[in-house]
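Incident review: delayed structure delivery

Summary: a single-chain prediction request sat in the queue longer than the usual turnaround. Root cause was a stuck worker, restarted by the on-call engineer. No data loss occurred. The affected request and its eventual output are reproduced below so the record is complete for anyone auditing the incident later.

Affected input:
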Amino acid sequence: MPVEQKKHPDTPTLYTKARIKRLAKGKHWVTIYNGQHIVKGYAKKFSVDLLTALKELRMLGITISEQYEQSLIQTLNGLAEKRKQEKLRKEIEMQSSFESDDEFAFIMGYTSGGAAYGIKWEDWPVDNLSGEPGNENHIIS
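Output delivered after worker restart:
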């Protein structure tokens, strides 16, 4: 049986190597940057998120206020919550957009004469616990 080699804790990972390269390039970039929003500029230049940019700029010796950091974290949390709410809203909208009646669980459409066609209630897969449609993989023909 082959013996596994132990990983050395001081060996830099791929992310650490990338950070070392960014910090080396960032030292020069900071001296020539003349914009107003250095955190946003650093994040865009080096393709990192805003919190990583903030942390690396501090490593480079740039003074960034705690108030700005807290405001940034609050904004990012707000955006994450907004995305979550939007996803939930779309999910609810998708569920409520299905049309059904007494005969059909899901109405796919109507014929030219006005008769509905779709999946009948007896053919609709039902989850035993909740009575809601299940995730079974039924093939509809």
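Verification: Residues 66-96 form the longest helix (31 residues).
Action items: add queue-age alerting; document worker restart procedure.
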